[in-house]
Amino acid sequence: MSKLALEDKLENLPSQPGVYIFKDRRGRIIYVGKAKSLRHRARSYFQLSKSFNIKTETLVREIADIDYIVTDNDIEAVILENSIIKKEKPRFNVMLRDDKNFPYLKLTISEEYPRLYLVRRVLSDGALYYGPFIPASLARRTIRLISRHFLIRRCRYPIGKKKVSPCIDLQIHRCLGPCVPGLATREEYQAAVKDVQLFLEGKTAELMRSLRQKMERAAAREQFEQAAYYRDTLHTLEELSLKQKIAFTTLAEEDFFGYHIEGNQAVLQVFNLRQGVVVGRKEYYWDEPLPIDEEEFITAMVKQYYHSDQYVAHRIYLQRDFEDSRLLEDWLSQKRGNRVNIVVPKRGRKAQLLQLIIENARLSFNNKFKSEATERLLIALQEALHLDKVPQRIEAFDISNIGAGDMVGSMVVWEKGAPKPSDYRKFKIKTVLGPDDIGSMTEVIKRRYERLLKEKKNLPDLVLVDGGKGQLGAAVKSLASLGIQEVSVAAIAKREETLYLQGRAKPVKLEEGSSVLRLLQQVRNEAHRFAITFHRRVRTGRLLASELEQVPGIGEKRKNLLLSHFKSLDRIRAASEDELTPLIGRRAAREVVDHFSSQ
């Protein structure tokens, strides 16, 4: 992958939590990392201003491609990161490459009096496993919480086989004491175990309400130590409520198929789970000449995926059912050698994981197909306007001049075919008197690019101004006065939708309804909207300030306080004397109320 393509991929990464995967020129995974924002974290490796250690500098030099998987939160990202590292053993990963697993809680339901304790391996032994817990301290806090509230045992005593001495948990009221005859019946103990199961399965709403009430009662009685305990317990419960969909504690072999279809294009992602861990992820693209039928697509993709020697999982999860699903089940069962189930999950953790995979497919679709469509559109724009290069960055200007004292300008930015609001700019006209569009455009263009040159920032590929020949000439003249010759300039007139181009005598009339014209109209209309919005705000502020200046005792300082606090004249007019007094004092507040009540 070229450096330019890599930069483009970095730019299009989503700002969501997930796992990023760096690959070398041979496609080998060399580093796996987690991030709260994939875009921010992955881009940080390529910042020139950043100083790295030798290992990271070597890693960055070898990065040739980037892949990613989004998750719902950063805890899921940690779990997925660990799974991929354990499977791929990337050369530059160190922290998670050992054999230490994240902890699980094991509930031994096959025993007469089940125990709950921490383990780091999931076994097929009839017990229930919950987790993994990130961080590991969360598992220990959870066990302590369960001991206090549900009183089930943690010890290894063989209950009923011989007489044992109770452990300290019974003495400090952390266990029902099934080891002591007559202290707790088997039914009482099993009821407590059932509550623990519900709690660990995430059904914690009622428990959290009860704990919150206890915390508030303890605080009201000034029992602050007890209130702090309830607060910490609630915090643990809130951490546990984060759904960790990437990791399952099942030993089943499962494949999840998630896809995104638009028209004749589709992206499919297949996640392979083995023993509760994501061990594989594959991605496929379709770009057909005709629109894709969803049911046909589902049948075809499953058949194609398993047609070769691909291992058939015990369960296959799809996002919708289809007519031949039972027939396909029989074929897959024959291929596997025992029963295969095709499942469409409607609720629960499997449905949540499938939704996550569908979201990954949607993001991948946008990166592949929508970026390609945008590139084609920008090339068409280049050809239509006879530009020297593809206009990856467009800066568009508009002037709003209703009222001689409130003239403003706006600039909006389109980058790679999409608006970039963070780069929008507003201008108050300073050197032009009266409603002079041409003079205002000259000032705004000069101020904008004088600043860019001073700050040594990149210039746009195309400057688009709202108007006709006059506005075009003003923009070209301003740029020329700054020594800028390499930027293309165009003007788009309202209503006629005619384009005037720098260096071309005749205007260009684009085909009505064409994608190029729609793009230019969209950019022009956004610049107009942004200018009008700013103009109204400036005008409202001026009128409000003018009205307040007529009130005795209201000088510049008090005027600014009122404007900052109430925002509008109507709110100041509606304010009572008591509401105004804290800001400007009782006497001035009375003057304001009297002024507006006399109108």
Question: How is this structure best described in words?
Answer:
The protein has 5 domains: 3-88, GIY-YIG endonuclease (3-Layer(aba) Sandwich); 104-240, no CATH class; 253-366, Nucleotidyltransferase, domain 5; 393-539, 2-Layer Sandwich (Nucleotidyltransferase, domain 5); 549-597, DNA polymerase, domain 1 (Orthogonal Bundle). It is 46% helix and 18% strand. It is built from 19 helices and 19 strands. Strands 12, 13, 14, 15, 16, 17, 18 and 19 form an 8-stranded mixed sheet that branches. The radius of gyration is 33 Å and the shape is extended. It starts with a helix and ends with a helix.
Question: Topology of this protein?
Answer:
Layout lengths: L2 H9 L6 E6 L5 E7 L2 H7 L9 H9 L2 E6 L3 H15 L15 E4 L8 E4 L8 E3 L5 H14 L18 H4 L14 H15 L4 H16 L3 H17 L12 E10 L2 E10 L2 E11 L6 H14 L7 E3 L7 H12 L4 E3 L4 H38 L7 E8 L7 E8 L2 E2 L5 E4 L8 H19 L6 E5 L2 H13 L6 E5 L5 E4 L6 E2 L5 H34 L7 H11 L2 H6 L2 H8 L1 H12 L2
Parallel strand pairs: 7-10, 10-11, 12-16, 16-17
Antiparallel strand pairs: 1-2, 1-3, 4-5, 4-6, 7-8, 8-9, 12-13, 13-14, 13-15, 17-18, 18-19
Helix pairs in contact: 5-9, 8-9, 13-14, 18-19
